[in-house]
């Protein structure tokens, strides 16, 4: 190669982050980034040269390159691309039979919509492997999709700043509700607020150890923003801003974004657990749990819920939701506020923007 040809550490591409917690940042990746996705495609998506892989993601976002280009092509697999202005299950589900799609990946949001359809009307027999990432997968969605299709959804975790860093990999046995175990590419640890590694079962921030150098697939930094880079990358660790617990088998269980954790009457409440319980109710299509300021408790739990078609949101239904949470989790975790809405605010990549819900509630509280 010529002397001026780019090498592995030189910049290759930039992605905007999805902006779930604020304004999007620009994550800069180097030329080693595509190699990091070999693990994504081969050992998580489970692609092969004779198959056709379909990842639902707007082309141009980081998730698109997780599932539409680098890893799949390195594995000699064909990819199916279908872009749309608005997601509709009835448009997507016929595509599997029509094009003989064999492996599939979509955000949990899409699976939530799928399980509310009559899946028996669609031929999904071509699908051999199903995966999900983007946000945590509710156990109810996992169970209902498997009941309807026989497919086990293999969950994974990563960010725009990384490639796949935690997953239920090919050949592993998933634990329902768990993100899986760390990728061999990443030295993943959970750290407490003082920077100490957490004990088994304790909640900590998901961090990637970089003291021996950045792993293949981790970003260089935020473009033209050294301060924001230093905010997340310091003391030999990249800090994801996401919290989880790790069990005795090394499986990680998602708790929530650090900013999303609710602090009420001295308790720390993770939103994902409550969302998963509410999703068990047959009339709930989507749900987001957020904190609302409270003079006595500091914060209280709020549930913003999208109901299934034909369900009317009444005060009695709100009470039913509250009682269900009380009896299926600790009583202090129940949502003191329940609001029914037509849709949840989301990023273009399909992640729920809880920050937008919090902002509106803060504005109401401040008059």
Compact description:
Helices cover 25% and strands 26% of the residues. The protein has 11 helices and 20 strands. A 7-stranded mixed beta sheet has the order 4-3-5-6-7-8-9. Strands 10, 11, 13, 14 and 15 form a 5-stranded antiparallel beta sheet that branches. Strands 1-2-12 form a 3-stranded antiparallel beta sheet.
Break the fold down into its secondary structure elements and pairings:
Blueprint: E1 11-16, E2 26-30, H1 33-45, E3 52-55, H2 62-67, H3 70-74, E4 78-80, H4 89-92, H5 95-99, E5 103-106, H6 108-114, E6 129-132, H7 139-149, E7 153-157, E8 166-167, E9 181-182, E10 188-191, E11 204-209, E12 221-222, H8 226-232, E13 233-234, E14 237-246, E15 252-257, E16 262-264, E17 267-269, H9 271-278, E18 284-294, E19 298-307, H10 315-328, E20 337-341, H11 354-365
Parallel strand pairs: 3-4, 3-5, 5-6, 6-7, 19-20
Antiparallel strand pairs: 1-2, 2-12, 7-8, 8-9, 10-11, 11-14, 13-14, 14-15, 16-17, 18-19
């Amino acid at each position: 190669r010529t002397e001026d040809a780019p090498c592995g550490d030189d910049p290759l591409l930039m992605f905007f982050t999805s902006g779930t917690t604020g304004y999007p940042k620009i994550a800069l990746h180097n030329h080693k980034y595509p190699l990091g996705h070999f693990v994504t495609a081969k050992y998580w998506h489970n692609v092969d040269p004779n198959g056709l892989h379909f990842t639902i993601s707007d082309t141009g976002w980081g998730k698109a390159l997780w599932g539409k280009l680098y890893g799949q092509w390195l594995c000699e697999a064909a990819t199916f691309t279908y872009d749309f202005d608005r997601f509709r299950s009835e448009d997507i589900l016929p595509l599997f039979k029509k094009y003989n799609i064999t492996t599939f990946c979509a955000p949990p949001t899409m699976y939530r919509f799928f399980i509310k359809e009559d899946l028996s009307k669609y031929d999904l027999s071509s699908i051999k492997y199903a995966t999900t990432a983007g946000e945590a997968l509710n156990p109810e969605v996992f169970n209902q999709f498997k009941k309807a299709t026989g497919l086990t959804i293999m969950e994974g975790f990563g960010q725009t700043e990384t490639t796949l860093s935690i997953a239920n990999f090919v050949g592993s046995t998933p634990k329902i509700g768990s993100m899986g175990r760390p990728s061999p590419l990443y030295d993943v640890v959970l750290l407490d607020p003082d920077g100490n590694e957490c004990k088994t079962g304790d909640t900590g921030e998901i961090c990637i150890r970089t003291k021996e150098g950045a792993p293949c697939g981790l970003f260089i930094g935020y473009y033209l923003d050294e301060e924001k880079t230093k905010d997340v990358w310091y003391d030999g660790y990249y800090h994801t801003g996401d919290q989880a617990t790790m069990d005795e088998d090394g499986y990680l269980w998602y708790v929530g974004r650090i900013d999303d954790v609710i602090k009420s009457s001295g308790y720390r409440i993770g939103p994902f657990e409550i969302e998963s319980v509410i999703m068990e109710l047959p009339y709930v299509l989507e749900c987001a749990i957020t904190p609302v300021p409270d003079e006595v408790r500091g914060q209280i739990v709020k549930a913003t819920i999208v109901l299934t078609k034909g369900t009317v949101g009444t005060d009695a239904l709100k009470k039913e939701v509250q009682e269900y949470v009380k009896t299926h989790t600790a009583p202090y975790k129940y949502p003191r506020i329940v609001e029914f809405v037509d849709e949840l605010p989301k990023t273009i990549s399909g992640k729920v923007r809880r920050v937008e819900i919090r902002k509106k509630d803060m504005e109401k509280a401040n008059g």
